[in-house]
Amino acid sequence: MDAHERTFRGGLYRKYSIYLVTAVCTALLVAGLTDIYFTVRTLHAQTIAVQEVQAAAAGAKIGDFMEAIERQATWITTLTQDHDVADLRTEAQFLLRRARPISHIRLLDKRGREQVFVSRFELDHVGSGQDFSGDAAFKAASTGRIHRSAIHFRSESEPYMTIALPRNGGRDGVALFDVNLKPLWQAIRPIRVGRLGYAYAVDRSGTLVAHRNVSLVLRQQNIADRPQVARAIAALAAASPTAAGGDKPSDAGPGTGDDGKPVLGAFIHVPKPDWLVFVEQPTAEANEAVNAAIVRTSALMLGGLLLALGLSLVLAQRMTQPIRALRQGAVRFAGGDLHHRIEIRSRDELQDVADRFNVMADQLSEARTTLERKVEARTQELEVANRAKTRFLAAAGHDLRQPVHAVGLLVSSLRLKLERNDLRDLAAKADLAIDNMRELLDNLLDMSRLEAGTTAPNPRYFPVSRVLEQAEFACAPEAESRGLDFRTVRSEQMVLSDPVMLGRIVLNLVANALHNTQSGKVLLGCRRRGRELSIEVWDTGVGIPESRLDDIFLEFFKLQLATPSSGLGLGLYIVRGLADQLGHRLDVSSQVGAGSVFRISVPIADMSGRADIDASKGPPTHLLAGRTVLVVDDEPSVLSAMTVVIGGWGCEVLAAASAEEALELFSVHCNAIAIVLCDHALPGNMKGLEVLGRINAMKEHAHLVLVTADTSPLLLQAAEEMGYLTLHKPVQAEKLRTFLTHLLAGLPAEEASA
Amino acid sequence: MSPESSDPIFGKYLAWAMLVAVALVVIAAASMLLAPPARSVGKVARIGILSPSWADNRGTVYPQFVQELQALGYAEGKNASLISRFSDGHDERLAPLAAELVQEKVDVLVAMQPSGALAAKRATSTIPIVFISISDPVRIGVVANLRRPGGNITGVANTPADLNVKRLEILKDALPQLHRVAIVARSGNPNSQAHLPDDLKAAKALGLEARVYNVAGADEFGSSFDAIERDGMQAVLLVQDGVFFFQRKRIAELAVKHRLPMIADGWAYAESGAFLSYGIANYGTLSVAAAAAVDMILHGIEPGDIPIDQPVDLGLAVNLGVARRLGIPVDRALLLRSDEVIE
What we know:
The complex is a heterodimer of chains A (754) and B (343). With 754 residues, chain A is an alpha+beta fold. Chain A has 19 helices and 25 strands. In chain A, 38% of the residues are buried. The relative contact order of chain B is 0.11. In chain B, helix 2 packs across helix 11, helix 3 packs across helix 4 and helix 5 crosses helix 6.
């Protein structure tokens, strides 16, 4: 889990943060930009609107002015030319009073001759008759149209316009009015827009007629080249020339100011003096408010973004925290920490998940505890059962061994003593039966030894013929009695293995072959395969179905045959166990109805001059003669049997039935006693092990052998530790003899123990 | 068991809260700094005013002028600073006062009356000067010409001096029997003196016999009018003059006392007791024009490019009360053409 933890990237926080920040920032940006866009548009529109209002106001003032002048002047135009000139003069003077901007009035008759001239500044003329018929204004107005002159200047700098009104449609001549236009300037020049905005007026040709800078007007500067002016003049030309009133202010469009810089403005056409009035403001100044608004909006947006960023990160943190807690919980839980509980207090679905998780953890924890307890109980039960089994086996083995041991010995000695053939046959059969029993008990012993783990292999170089002969010797009688053709093929090969364990394997394989063959042959032989020697046992038995080839090596396994066979089913189990310990390969091939072959592969000995004992020779049996052996066993039959058999070999046998007796005997004959064969299960508190211990303390160079039917691993281990040899009941007489001989010959004890 | 430990979260909250606070402060500061500047940001215009009047009696023009400046957006204390100097009637003080204003580094110097204007002209040739109430600025040498004065002086003219022509005509219209008319002028007024020949010519054109009576100062009014009556003059034309203006009441009374119908300059005269007056109907227009000129100069236009403004709004005032006292019938025509009728 650790490695997984390390590679786990996590990214929920980052993901959430990015999503939230993106969402909020996008929203803010969109809002901000839209705001700016519309603000700019609105501000510009407002600026233009204000300018339009001012232009309209100026236009209205101008229009009203002209309107008033002409209206007031109308009365006098109704007076015919035949009117008394003095009266005309009075009327004119009256008009001067009413229309203040009028400075001069000239009344011409039909022929253009001056009837009356009235002035604010100069002397009046009455009936001068001066000829003005060539005057353009007279000519225009005498057709009945109102004529308005262009602006001209009197006294160097006074702006004037001459308005010619027809008298009675021109029938009675023309009235000329000189009108001072300074009031119009008053309507235009003081107009202010912001700090730098101003107003001005031009006539149709684009010449300035009113401007804050009077000198420009006096110079008659023409500004028709400015884009806004040109556009306005063009629009005017395009529009209907008879548009009377109703001229609305309009956006002048982008234009240029006096200083050449861009301006925003509005304009209006005032029909009466036929002027275009412009109200403008430098775009830079108009944009100041816009720029300030943009900066403000941007600052707000930035602040908003920062705020959003902060809040998003916090929010993402809050969102991922419980999820991470959940994940952490799952990780630890999977890692085995069932005590971890997830704490989330968010009062929402996540808390619910955490709570359910915790409940699950509780249940699992409980279940596990229960399971563990059950397992433990079970294990204990099994252990108890196992121990019981072992005890049972030990007990059974021990109980069985005693009589079998005794019987074996007795029958052996009986065979020697019988002379009648039929009796010898009976005894031989009995011996066989006893061998069988011994074999069974041996297998039990081996099994418990295997379980105890006391059999550590002791590899040596030895001739393979030793194990072959052992097996042959042990099994030939049975084969013969069952009418099976049992052959052994000799071999001179030397192998590297543990002779005792290998001997057991081979013996068991042959026995197994014999057991499972009703009729036919059993062949024991060797085949060299490279560096290994394959010891093979062939039989023509019932064969093993392929599906059971593994099963046959199981404890207490027996194939279901037509006829029940003897044995406990341990033979192959032991073979397998020993083979595993030795490290030898075990193979089996079989064909149902034809037979089977078992192979055990043993490494061939490398003959690099290792001297070995020619086991076929065996030690001379005369070694036994005259030697003293102390036998200790509480079972009288066993004791007497042992005494007889061993005595039959020429040994001096000292028999003890209890521990105390044994010690007493030993202390007396300690010098003479060469071997001590002591049964473990002695009456009283002192058991065989302890007896041997005491004897050992007394004298060290006696061979101390523990004889017992007990197969408990503990006992065997203890004996081994103390350095005692072990003999298991029932012991075959021949084996016992060989054992003792080897002991006395000084041969390695392993070879002797069985 | 690892509950959400609150301390790191709190720490995070604090950090973010601080960040938010900083952001808000930044926004606020930015907003304030970048608010559209007040309209009146920019330098303060320094306007100096030189007047021969009395500080406690500033006449009519001065207050109107200040008002007109305000109308154009110049507010004392906000974007303009008005520095005024009054000579209290003592012409000889005008020169040092003008020099003072020059020292004050005013952006434009507004000078009232010919005396003020001449003093200002002598005090500076760089600081723009705007004069108010001068009848013939060219004649008295304040400016070279009316259309394009050049130099650093421009201004608002009072009344064309040759209105005397019109005044004589009006007098004749009002008094059909008029043959002999006295023209009273101040000897110390170069303007008046310069126009006298034209005035006499005009009188002759009207068929009137005119005689000039020069008066040096107020103390000579009495003797002058005595002489006028003694000489059998039938009416008086009072040539406009500042001193006369201030003494108008006394002069009007003298005219009435000597049973002389008098025509003078502005309506103030008729109000003060003159039979007729023909002149500027509304002195406010002078201030309007003067303020406009100051505005132009403050916007960078050269004073020399600004033409002298001449008033055109002239009106006739009739004092009916005086007419009755003098036994003059006021006919309809006269009434019709009168802009102001005073009882």
